[in-house]
Model the fold of this input.
Amino acid sequence: MQFKLLIGTNNDGKVKEYSRLLSDLPIVFTTPQQERIISEPNETGATFSENALIKAEYYACKTGLPTLADDSGLEVDALEGAPGIYSARYAGVAAPDNENNDLLLSNLSDTPWKSRMARFSCVIALAISGHEPELFEGTCDGYIAREIKGANGFGYDPLFYFPALGKTFGEIDSDSKDAVSHRGIATNKLFKRLRWLLI
Done:
């Protein structure tokens, strides 16, 4: 059995990660762009879970397709959890990764290493017609580096230092990141659920 699954995002980095993480399932992946959907939902939720559900249900309603969508971000202890749900637009709407990273570094410029603790959080929502939406969560703890290191990944990956590997997410390969990242952990839970649904 094979079915079409919409990855409800216009973020190319996320599309690549989900396509890779779910590649062992008999699924054909599609995106809003491929389905000719140019509108986007308003992310009015106050939590990652609420925004993930908004996006998944929006694209599922638009297309009638099984849809996954996530809301994820970086929560920095010294900044009282910021940027949080505003991670993708920390430096402004449609701000590129480098501007978000620069602002984060600036806001932590006087923060000592022991206080630069942070975590990546990810909540994936799965919306399928005839089923109640489901949520899958993952978190990953680390520190914010003092400078950008590595060119892999996207978003805040080059600033997120993962102690167990002694490197930032920007310095490690995809397989290593998938095994420990917030999105990898959440997607592993989603993978098991999709595999059960496909039986």
